[in-house]
Amino acid sequence: MQQDSNCGCGTKGACEGENTVNSEESMHAPEKLAINNFSSAKNVIAVMSGKGGVGKSSVTSLLACGFRRKGYEVGVLDADITGPSLPKLFGVKGPIEGTPFGMHPLESSTGIKVMSINLLMEQEDEPVIWRGPLLGKVVGQFWTDVVWTDLDYLFVDLPPGTGDVPLSVMQSLPLNGFIVVTSPQELATMIVKKAIKMAQIMNIPILGLIENMSGVICPKCGEEFKLFGPGHGEEVSKSFNIKFLGKLPVDPNLSKLCDQGKIEEYESSLFTDFIPGQLEAKGGDV
Amino acid sequence: MQQDSNCGCGTKGACEGENTVNSEESMHAPEKLAINNFSSAKNVIAVMSGKGGVGKSSVTSLLACGFRRKGYEVGVLDADITGPSLPKLFGVKGPIEGTPFGMHPLESSTGIKVMSINLLMEQEDEPVIWRGPLLGKVVGQFWTDVVWTDLDYLFVDLPPGTGDVPLSVMQSLPLNGFIVVTSPQELATMIVKKAIKMAQIMNIPILGLIENMSGVICPKCGEEFKLFGPGHGEEVSKSFNIKFLGKLPVDPNLSKLCDQGKIEEYESSLFTDFIPGQLEAKGGDV
């Protein structure tokens, strides 16, 4: 099997057609979609990783909480259609009803607007067994058909991987940029680099990198130890010239609040002060 | 927005056409693909979760190691095209070359055959930016175009979610069944239930459930504590009538071996004795 010069993947023949970012469809990328008529969003920031289970959803939610505490109008768009987490973290439950003006997101206890496929399902554990292009289309509808009203910040929680949904979000939403989440394993580092390179190929700025799960504190003796070896977050940030935003330990208390739908009660100075300050510093428009 | 009776997701109009499992295409599901001419596989077992980052790849690899130690011919097929982990865990590196007979998988130090998209790439951190249907097609090629030779067990490491790749694997590979991996968070439990329900819809048996990351042992004081709250693995197993195969703690030593490409050196009685015994017990054919 020969290397295919288009994609470097070696799966000759498979990489043709409209399925790849290098194809004609992608070169003449679709126009950005217009947000819902009754809505606006000054800043749209997506949280990505490439790797699953590194805490994208909790980082997305904590970012939203941090900005909300500073008084901004904030929304979160759950772009993980087959593994949606945000309603559970914020303790909101559907199903929601549509109106002639579009779908109305649910509001969390502090007033963060939440939209997720799970808010449209009768049962939260019902699977969404859809092929990728449809997944991307639904995420587009969460932008065009949801009455967000006027937001200062919309945070988009991406699924793992570099497939349909991240591609559709990059092509069709007016992103200010990405926050990248990594974890200390070398394996995660490799996969996160794929996501960073995808953002570069698509010309979307990366606003910063957060290393999650960098260690854990023993509740008995107070010892902080590494769960997954030494982290590489700062190293990756340096090598790609990305701002390193900080490290987060695994905190059983955060897991507990997430399971209870009370993530807004979690106190993290990183998200309350440091990160909003860092992102606001870029001229108010991220 | 009205509920769509086909899928229960409420995104009216979006669920039509060939993208959903309920569509005509899926009802008349494609024939199973024939394995490569020079190969056979007595048992094909996929490892799934729905949720990312719960350890599907390490469970897949440890299963493979457990069966290999018992003397079986074993292969691992990395179906996670946008987040491939297996080459790193087994310490094998591409790029591999094709032959007129197909692609030859690489062999790990104990003789496990490994196939992954990363073995076809020049650089392991290069992203694969493809839409879903293509991802499913490549996984099919890993079955039809790879010279596995004669295997007793082929383990398939699925990506997170319930989208294209799990769907294609379920439709086109002759699976004996799934091993489901969960982690203790309630959030993971909800998403894992989606995956279990997908397997049920597709009529694929679930051979057992493993709860990963069920706790961690402090290296200083030896205290074992819960990282993510109490697990729900046994409860989920019972409610779906699935065999509960066991719990695995987070083990920094396993992470280290994974990062070094030496997962085969990891000792786990669960995988060396217990699980092969359990799966063999089903009449030798899983």
Overview of this structure, please?
- The structure is a homodimer of 286-residue chains.
- Chain A is globular.
- Chain A has a single domain (32-280), classed as P-loop containing nucleotide triphosphate hydrolases (Rossmann fold).
- In chain A, a hairpin with a 6-residue loop joins β10 and β11.
- With 286 residues, chain A is of the alpha/beta class.
- Chain A has 9 helices and 12 strands.
- The first copy, chain A, has helices spanning 24-27, 56-69, 86-90, 132-144, 164-172, 186-201, 233-240, 252-259, 269-280, and strands at residues 40-48, 74-78, 98-99, 102-103, 106-107, 113-115, 150-157, 177-182, 206-211, 216-217, 224-225, 244-247.
- The model of chain A is unreliable at 1-19, 22-28 and 281-286 (pLDDT under 50).
- Helix content of chain A is 31%, strand content 18%.
- In chain A, strands 5-6-2-7-1-8-9-12 form an 8-stranded mixed beta sheet, with helices on both faces. Chain A has a two-stranded antiparallel ribbon with strand order 3-4.
- The N and C termini of chain A lie far apart (45 Å).
- The interface between A and B is large, with 91 and 91 residues.
